[in-house]
Specification:
- It is a single chain.
- By secondary structure, this protein is α/β, with parallel strands linked by helices.
- The protein folds into 2 domains: 274 residues, Glycogen Phosphorylase B (Rossmann fold), CATH 3.40.50; 205 residues, Glycogen Phosphorylase B (Rossmann fold, 3-Layer(aba) Sandwich), CATH 3.40.50.2000.
- It has 19 helices and 18 strands.
- The strands form 3 sheets. The protein has a 10-stranded mixed sheet with strand order 5-6-4-1-7-8-9-12-11-10, with helices on both faces.
- Helix 12 crosses helix 17.
- The longest helix is centred in the first third of the chain and has 26 residues.
- The chain is globular.
């Protein structure tokens, strides 16, 4: 951290997340190896770790070798990181991850349930809470306590995301008032009524635990505001909406928005890498203008409606046939969860239907890739005329930022008003209601036919906005608030 001395009081910084920065394995020769983790959260937290002169990252053991690392007495040093793995009881972890966190919390927070029919909660939910979610969170807190044993100074504990909602309570029980706890929630925080889907023991337990933190953080002011409303309605907490403070047991809990971002330099370097340049030849050979989407195959991403909207656009504007290709770079996600497996099949059927209705012998309207091919995605970032981000709800959506930095065609962003990125980027994008197929069809057509001068103006503004708030700025904003919180009585 750039201001480590006055931010952490010379105490250790402990980063805690379910997924970690590395996964360990064994080579054929029996040597320990590791691979770097991918994804926006890991990349962001790497930036936090790099800024700290003394930090440890705690994460769940995912492999057999991770489990061996978990029983070692000291954190394992990997390049510029110190990593501690936590081994969970397999049944407890399965209940936490596959019954409680995914899909229940994820679906509630993204507004994905068809509420007249689902969810159907009961004793199985209670068991997942008591025998899965709570024990796993307690396990994380015990790991934090072990890491800090014998440490001097006042530690900072940075907890991350919806798998760890009960960890603040257990950390506070073990470490007392001297530990600074910041909890960052990387997915949407919906309006209070959505939280009433959860059983009372879960909704109250989660909120009471989160309010053991000193700071609760989100990507947008909208989510922070929703959290304050939820604390008031569910717990009857005293809240200062203007200052963003919850008053709890004589303490202040600051509720803040820090929009996560990217490292532009990383993507500028990727854009000219050999792997990307190789894929770019394929991308440039696609016929017509390029309409692009890059997403995980998650229900929250609204992929099926995006294809339906594209089909509607071709119906309304048959002159566009043959003049545009929709490239969908989709990364498989959570295929072992029934709802996700069904959604993957719905995606395939939607593509088949659009291609059947509108395709020809020499033109395929939608080019579908259902594999993780990051170099091709980056190559497509450089060459799209329009980028579709039409999420039902999204914590941020870093694709919108990554693509804007390296696009070379003044591509137009078609952006859901429910994506977290809309708070920063919306004024420079074409805003769409993610449930309105006709509105999305019109926006896609407008993006593909927009005059060059307007495209250039919007694209330039998008790039400037992203460049003005990089991942380093995201970290720095949090560190400044930690220093301000600790110094408020000084």
């Amino acid at each position: 951290m750039a201001q480590a001395d006055n931010t952490n009081g010379n105490g250790l910084v402990v980063i805690v997340s379910n997924r970690g920065p590395v996964t360990f394995s064994r080579s054929d020769g029996g040597e320990r190896e590791y691979s770097r983790g991918a994804g926006g959260l890991v990349t962001a937290l790497n930036s936090v770790s790099r800024r700290s002169k003394d930090s440890v990252w705690i994460a769940s053991a995912q492999s057999e070798e991770d489990a061996r690392v978990a029983v070692e007495p000291a954190p394992y040093e990997v390049e510029d990181l110190r990593v501690a793995m936590v081994e969970h009881d397999p049944e407890a972890y399965d209940l936490m991850y596959n019954t409680l966190a995914n899909p229940l919390l994820w679906f509630v927070q993204h507004g994905l349930y068809n509420l007249p029919y689902e969810p159907v909660l009961g004793d199985g939910t209670l068991r997942a809470w008591e025998d899965g979610y709570v024990p796993v969170n307690r396990n994380f807190a015990e790991a934090v306590s072990r890491i800090l044993e014998g440490e001097d100074g006042e530690p900072i504990i940075l907890l991350h995301d919806y798998q760890l909602y009960m960890a603040p309570r257990f950390v506070r029980e073990r470490l007392g008032a001297g530990a600074f706890i910041s909890f960052f929630i990387h997915i949407p925080w919906p309006e209070p009524d959505y939280w009433r889907v959860l059983p009372d023991y879960a909704r109250r337990g989660i909120l009471e635990s989160l309010l053991e933190s000193n700071v609760v953080a989100f990507h947008t002011h909208r989510y922070a505001s929703n959290f304050l409303d939820t604390a008031t309605e569910v717990l009857g907490a005293e809240v200062d909406l203007e200052k963003g403070i919850v008053y709890r047991d004589g303490r202040e809990v600051w509720v803040r928005a820090y929009p996560i971002s990217i490292d532009p330099k990383e993507f500028e370097e990727l854009a000219v890498s050999e792997a990307v340049l190789e894929q770019e030849q394929w991308v440039k050979n696609l016929p017509g203008k390029l309409l692009l989407r890059v997403d995980r195959m998650d229900l929250s991403k609204n992929i099926v409606r995006g294809f339906q909207a594209y089909g509607r656009m071709l119906e309304r504007h048959p002159e566009m046939k043959g003049g545009v290709t929709f490239l969908a770079q989709l990364q498989p996600s959570r295929g072992d969860i029934e709802e996700y497996a069904r959604y993957a099949e719905a995606i395939r059927k939607a593509v088949v239907e659009v291609n059947r209705l509108h395709g020809s012998g020499d033109w395929t309207p939608i080019e579908l890739s259902m594999e993780d091919n990051f170099p091709r995605s980056v190559a497509a970032y450089k060459n799209y005329e329009a980028l579709l981000v039409n999420a039902v709800r999204d914590g941020m959506n870093l694709v919108a930022k990554e693509a804007a930095v390296i696009n070379e065609r003044d591509g137009v962003l078609v952006l859901s008003e429910n994506a977290g990125a809309h708070e920063e980027l919306g004024e420079h994008a074409l805003t769409v209601n993610p449930f309105d197929i006709d509105g999305q069809a019109d926006a896609i057509h407008e993006a593909l036919t927009m005059p060059d001068d307007e495209k250039e103006h919007r694209a330039s503004a998008l790039r400037e906005t992203v460049m003005s708030n990089t991942i380093e700025d995201w970290v720095e904003a949090q560190m400044r608030d930690i220093a301000a919180y600790r110094g408020r009585d000084g």
